[in-house]
Amino acid sequence: MSLAERLQSLFVALAALTGLALGLLLPIGPTAGHAVLPALIAMLTAVFVQMDAAHVRQVRHAAPLVATSLALNFLLTPALAWALGTGLLGTEPDLRIGLLLLLVTPCTDWYLVFTALARGHTGIAAALLPINLALQLALLPAYVLLLGGRAAMVDAATLTESVLLVLVLPLTAAMALRWAAARFRGPAWRRRHITDPAGHLVLPLLYAAVLAMFAWQARTVVDHATDLLALLPPLAIFFTALPLTAVGLSRLLRLPADQKVTLTMTTTARNSPTALAVAVAAFPDRPLIAVALVMGPLLELPVLALIAQLVRVRPPRAKTPAPH
């Protein structure tokens, strides 16, 4: 993991604070607002262009892990998100929707970094990425409409259009770019000139989107600063319960150590950039939802770093030779 990736939480916080200061000191709010969605769509395109669907074949060799991962991500997590939102944020509908959007979107990028850092099975982790993404595309509107209830206050058509805009459009563009580059210039050229540079663009685009969003909604953040603190308890519960559940099920299923790491990371990490893009597109007149989503990575990334150390696969100790 590079230094930039290790300091991601710090850089997200700095981008948010810089945007907040600029939005309060300068009249740039409306201009900054126009930059948020394009930056997020460009960032997601850069994420998706690195995705190799050929990895999906590897899931055949880890059926228990894959089945457990899908059950945790798409059955248990939505139920837990609904329970946490209803129980702890019942009087804050925008925070409830922000929490729901964050928790029902499994990560499709940086969980791979933490899986590798903890010496997990990165092949299976990469194979789960397109599966998680496809299920998000299909289920996200249903989760928001069914679990969000009256707090969602958005029609199915608007939500579906937003998902198509921020997920399907960049995914289609990324896959077309991957195919064209490989078809006309070759896989090596694609890696050198497309996928590797795209990897270096993701974090700067995320920071730019966060800075622009906070500059755009600086007054909203200031007016609701104490409300945002209400997100800390449900997030703390989630980022404690999911790793413990994944580790417990790994032991019950007797998964190999590297698969235990993979299950823990893919069910704990969340896809805050995608959730943020959907929030900006689907709820443009409810900025607190998008602002709430920035709380996720500020807590999530340090937690993932800690979990990576706790579940890390340790190499076997060398045996001490017996004395003669």
UniProtKB/TrEMBL annotation:
<feature type="transmembrane region" description="Helical">
    <location>
        <begin position="289"/>
        <end position="311"/>
    </location>
</feature>
<keyword id="KW-1133">Transmembrane helix</keyword>
<dbReference type="InterPro" id="IPR002657">
    <property type="entry name" value="BilAc:Na_symport/Acr3"/>
</dbReference>
<dbReference type="Pfam" id="PF01758">
    <property type="entry name" value="SBF"/>
</dbReference>
<feature type="transmembrane region" description="Helical">
    <location>
        <begin position="63"/>
        <end position="85"/>
    </location>
</feature>
<dbReference type="InterPro" id="IPR004706">
    <property type="entry name" value="Arsenical-R_Acr3"/>
</dbReference>
<feature type="transmembrane region" description="Helical">
    <location>
        <begin position="33"/>
        <end position="51"/>
    </location>
</feature>
<comment type="similarity">
    <text>Belongs to the arsenical resistance-3 (ACR3) (TC 2.A.59) family.</text>
</comment>
<feature type="transmembrane region" description="Helical">
    <location>
        <begin position="97"/>
        <end position="117"/>
    </location>
</feature>
<keyword id="KW-0813">Transport</keyword>
<feature type="transmembrane region" description="Helical">
    <location>
        <begin position="198"/>
        <end position="216"/>
    </location>
</feature>
<keyword id="KW-1003">Cell membrane</keyword>
<keyword id="KW-0812">Transmembrane</keyword>
<dbReference type="InterPro" id="IPR038770">
    <property type="entry name" value="Na+/solute_symporter_sf"/>
</dbReference>
<feature type="transmembrane region" description="Helical">
    <location>
        <begin position="124"/>
        <end position="144"/>
    </location>
</feature>
<feature type="transmembrane region" description="Helical">
    <location>
        <begin position="228"/>
        <end position="249"/>
    </location>
</feature>
<keyword id="KW-0472">Membrane</keyword>
<feature type="transmembrane region" description="Helical">
    <location>
        <begin position="156"/>
        <end position="177"/>
    </location>
</feature>
<protein>
    <submittedName>
        <fullName>Arsenic resistance protein</fullName>
    </submittedName>
</protein>
